[in-house]
């Protein structure tokens, strides 16, 4: 079953108001850019996937697909996933660092060819996956407490907050207000988004960088608030400090969402940098290889909870990965009303991926990643295609 074509389009999803994510608050984002990939076989099966393309990189991925990936993949057997993954690694090394979304589309085609959802092909658990509402903005403590109560009423049993205040006291005040509002039974996660050297954290565009002492002091404060994990407290290549922090912290330390490639992930694991590893099927490595990494982490009593700040299509691939791993307890579900909502993020799907009343996301019953593209909805949002 050979690959006949690899297509991609860049879409822009307009936000109802400017969004100021904690990792880039200056200016405000007016839309989400996403690349939709379609891998078609000679039998007419079309595997799909979607990756989010911040920093204006969407056109670069499209060009990488047009000039490198399509010529490399056309003619290959869709079931030769390891050979295909090696082609993606070549592109990641020399052309564009995150072509992995194409690998998800390949696996979607494999699932469709077999008539099975990926989590079934991979021997996973078909139960709905517990989802946490992943907030993106830093808002005032009172506002966040109200926001948190609302999503708990909708069914969520976990919430991830972002912290970027100048002082630990301000960061902790936000988390404390939310804990007070939602009570002891809701899981709270805290993301510091400190891993990228390029990100700005203040509205004026300057940086506020944590050092080891701030990270550990914050972790100790958050332990008193029963926080489930502290995410990306230090630079992503600061392996020694991450290891020491993980060893010293009273709460789990999470990270790795943008440490790309199998070798980097294994390096993190061998250095014992985190309690929880967060590779993303669209952004970190080929999704089949991430399953193997998940097993390696499980053998060391470490968890893998994929990063999935993505559109509904991007979440769909990671959802299959979550369900296939024995050491994954949560699905990241981007949800920060009134901007980050399914009406915006899931418009490319004929049926949005929605949590049930218990805050769990059911696995779609369809084969592959289990979703269908709404071509009519994508047409007016498309800005480029190859
Ligand atoms: Mg994160």
Q: Could you please describe the fold and organization of this structure?
A:
Keywords: Magnesium, Metal-binding. This is Mandelate racemase/muconate lactonizing enzyme C-terminal domain-containing protein. Its cofactor is Mg(2+). Residues 141-252 form the Mandelate racemase/muconate lactonizing enzyme C-terminal domain. This protein has 386 residues and is of the alpha/beta class. It has 2 domains: 3-116 and 372-385, Enolase-like, domain 1 (2-Layer Sandwich); 121-361, Alpha-Beta Barrel (TIM Barrel), CATH 3.20.20.120. The protein has 13 helices and 13 strands. The chain has helices at residues 58-73, 81-94, 101-114, 118-121, 141-154, 168-182, 212-223, 239-248, 262-270, 287-299, 312-324, 342-345, 375-378; strands at residues 3-19, 29-41, 46-52, 129-134, 158-162, 187-191, 227-231, 253-255, 276-277, 303-304, 331-334, 360-361, 382-385. Strands 4, 5, 6, 7, 8, 9, 10, 11 and 12 form a 9-stranded mixed sheet that branches. The chain has a 4-stranded antiparallel sheet with strand order 3-2-1-13. Strand 4 (129-134), helix 5 and strand 5 form a beta-alpha-beta unit. Helix 2 (81-94) packs antiparallel against helix 3 and helix 6 (168-182) packs parallel to helix 7. It is globular, with a radius of gyration of 20 Å. Magnesium ion binds at residues 191, 193, 231-232, 257, 307.
